[in-house]
Amino acid sequence: MKAPFWTTRRRDALTGYLFITPQLIGVVVFVLVPVGLAVWYSLNDWNIFRGELTFVGGENWAALLDDPQLPSVLGATAVFSGGVVVLNISLGLALAVMLNRRFRGVTVFRTMFFSPVVVSVVAWTLVWGFLLQDNGGINAALSVVGIDGTNWLQNGNTAMVAVIVTQVIRSVGVNMVLFLAALQGVPGELYEAARIDGAGDAAIFRRITLPLISPTLLLTAIITIVGALQAFAQIAVLTQGGPGLSTTVLVYYVFQQAFEFNDIGYGSTLALMLLTFVMLLTLLQWQLRRKWVFHEN
Amino acid sequence: MRTDLARRIVLVVALTVLAIPFVIPTVWMIASSVKPLAEIFQSPPTLFTSSPTFEAYAEAFRFQPFARQYVNSVYIAVVVTVITLVVSSMAGYAFARIRFPGSNALFLVVLVGLLVPSEVTIVPLFQMFTEAGMVNTHWPLILVTALAAPCVLATFIMRQFFIALPGELEEAARLDGLGRPAIWARIALPLAKPALSAVTILTFLASWNLYLEPTVYLTSPELFTLPQALTRFTDAYGGEMWNTQLAAATMTVVPVLIVFVIAQRQFVEGLAHAGLKG
């Protein structure tokens, strides 16, 4: 007797392929094909009047080296992403440690620190834009205690700080929650044992808490830095990259080149550079994960 | 005993001070949206006005098709969330529970969608949607959001959830003669409520907050979404209409905040769940 073709295993496999098809099509059409096209655009020059692409080979890539604005853009990107990651992780961890205990009102505090996460980025940034103005709320509050505040967003030195702080306050709640969940996963016996051995708070934090939550630290670092590299709305609404180029980070520069100056070729080249950074960071963090993250076994 | 109390007081004071920049901007936004224009930049500043007016709220609807824009944001977010729930729970289930040749390689292909920032693909996508005649429609916002980045994250969350699910239930269902699709719909999905609510929250917020995409694809005010509309409250001379903007921002933010306060356990647990399993 011949075995039927549609065995359970074959039917299962067919269902599997059908189930993943919509998602797979989505990724291919809306991610992989565009990345391929971006590579093609980066090798072409876009003639805006004729609406035509002309193959120029490596010209756009060579232009990266000659772009007088690029060093400043990359510097701003590094300062912004670095500032956001450092501040976000340390503040998120500090908040989580403070809120990882029982006392009256702890839920209210958690809600307050998390609430900006659900506020729309544009609304949040608009409000901070008002508050940071020369005659805005922050300077008014400072003047009450006798400090003469600067025009935060118009000053090349303070604009970047303002953008970083605004971004961190809006998003640190996510990391706080992730750290809280990780802290609650640390077995209480470990703390007790360490106390019996006479370890102080600082030693316990460094020797027990930090190693045990290191997987979460790594994960939040990835999420935060990739998020910071993609922060567009914050910059577009708060400073439009200014004053000068002081807050023009790479994503905003890509947007300007591609959609304001209609330079599709160069814009795509810059976008691929951004993609390379994201990929390299992810790879680096995967490598670090092996070395640095605590393993139970 | 006494040091314990002192410590606790220090902690609460420190947390209260830290909470100021997290809470005051939202409070100030709501309070200022009912202030007369002249009072917004008054010095010394007031937090609450003595003569509230809702004029700015009325102006928001007069100046832009704000009701229409509100409907746009809501329906796009709902459609995107529903599509994402279906697509990601199917894909996540298949990657986690069904053996088929190439599943690991295909999963890696899908994960690439998580790594590529939308700012990288927006230039080619804009050209593709121009070719397809879909610029200045909601199609790009719905299709890309429902099938690319946020959906890939959802698929990842669903896969992690289904991997941890015990297999006995499925075995029992199989013996009862249920096929895979029926097991997915009747056994797996009802068990996946925590993951599904995490996906709902993350996807809805991602769609609700989209800014780059609408800015690039949409040019007609009646098609705008809320974040985009918020930045367009400028008068004929380019001056910003402060209190109108604040009123519109308040209308954008407060409903989501209310839902958050009511369902905060789901928000926070869903997020922690999604994050830690990653």
TrEMBL record, chain A:
Record's bilayer topology term: Multi-pass membrane protein
Query: Cross-referenced InterPro entries, in alphabetical order?
Result: ABC_transporter_permease (IPR051393), MetI-like (IPR000515), MetI-like_sf (IPR035906)
Look up the coiled coil feature and give its residue ranges: none
- List UniProt keywords, sorted A-Z: Cell membrane, Membrane, Transmembrane, Transmembrane helix, Transport
Q: Which domain of life is it from?
A: Bacteria
Give the principal location in a single coarse category: membrane
- Subcellular location per the Swiss-Prot or TrEMBL entry: Cell membrane
Q: Can you tell me where the transmembrane regions are? A: 20-43, 73-99, 111-131, 159-183, 264-284
Q: What PROSITE patterns does the record tag this protein with?
A: ABC_TM1
Which BP terms from GO are recorded? transmembrane transport
Database matches in CDD domains: TM_PBP2
Pfam families in alphabetical order: BPD_transp_1 (PF00528)
What GO CC annotations are associated with the protein?
A: plasma membrane
**Residue intervals of the ABC transmembrane type-1 domain:** 74-285
User: Which family does this protein fall into?
Assistant: Belongs to the binding-protein-dependent transport system permease family.
Protein name listed in UniProt: Sugar ABC transporter permease
Originating organism: Jiangella anatolica
UniProtKB/TrEMBL annotation, chain B:
Domain annotation ABC transmembrane type-1: ranges: 70-263
Its Gene Ontology cellular component terms are: plasma membrane
The membrane topology term of the UniProt record is:
Multi-pass membrane protein
Molecular function (GO) terms for this protein are: ATP binding
Residues in coiled coil: none
Transmembrane parts of this sequence? 9-31, 74-96, 105-126, 138-162, 183-208, 242-263
Q: Which GO terms describe its biological process?
A: transmembrane transport
Alphabetical list of CDD domains matching this protein: TM_PBP2 (cd06261)
This protein's UniProt keywords: ATP-binding, Cell membrane, Membrane, Nucleotide-binding, Transmembrane, Transmembrane helix, Transport
Q: Which Pfam families match?
A: BPD_transp_1
Instruction: Give the location in the cell.
Output: Cell membrane
The family note in this entry says: Belongs to the binding-protein-dependent transport system permease family.
Query: What is the name of the protein in this document?
Result: Sugar ABC transporter ATP-binding protein
Organism in which the protein naturally occurs? Jiangella anatolica
